[in-house]
Amino acid sequence: MTLIECPIERAPEVMAIFNHEILNSTGLYEYQPRTLETVQAWFRAKHSGRFPVIGAIADDGTLAGFASYGPFRSFPAYKYSVEHSVYVRADQRGRGVGRRLLQEVLAAAQREDYHMVIGGIDAENTASIRLHVSVGFTPCARIRHAGFKFGRWLDLAFYQYLLPTPAQPQDG
Q: Is residue 49 part of a domain?
């Protein structure tokens, strides 16, 4: 597996991974599959915000998974915080893809002088929670009944990782 800066040309593969999660899991609190146009707009928004889209390329050249981050909240004092996401293609799970992507997200955030990386995880997604805890994320909040999907209420758990950056944070 190789990690790359995932280009927009991989949008169909990213869309397939997103849509599998939307239709089959609570990994995304969405109901409708994404279109190619919405995924391409997502790529453009990441690019214009200077946020990475990291792709994991399997030995056969296909996209095994991807990760990214973006703003946590839009208020200025949150400028050192980002919210991340990691998605692994169903047939690639259990091979270390998620761990590599998550570690690269943390490294990229540190290079860009962020301080806090947070992830919102469905509280019943024990595999994702185990992965996050194994690389050093700690639980910081749980919102009961944050979403409703598949005929049931979903709790959203937040896990955070604190980076040693920036060296001299500043207001404003």
A: yes
- The SS3 assignment for 74 reads coil
Q: Judge whether 135 and 99 are in contact, CB under 8 Å.
A: yes
Is residue 167 in some structural domain? Answer: no
- Taking each continuous run of H as one helix and of E as one strand, the counts in the chain are 4, 7
In a domain, 42, yes or no: yes
The residues with which 68 forms a beta bridge, in sequence order, are 53, 85
pTM (2 decimals)?
0.94
What are the strands, taking DSSP E only, across 41-151? 53-57, 63-71, 81-88, 116-122, 138-149
pLDDT tens across 7-23, in order? 999 999 999 999 999 99
| pLDDT score of 151 | 97
For residue 11, give its domain range.
2-162
CATH classification at residue 79: 3.40.630.30
Predicted pLDDT of residue 97: 97
172, 76 contact by CB (below 8 A): yes
Domain count, the chain: 1
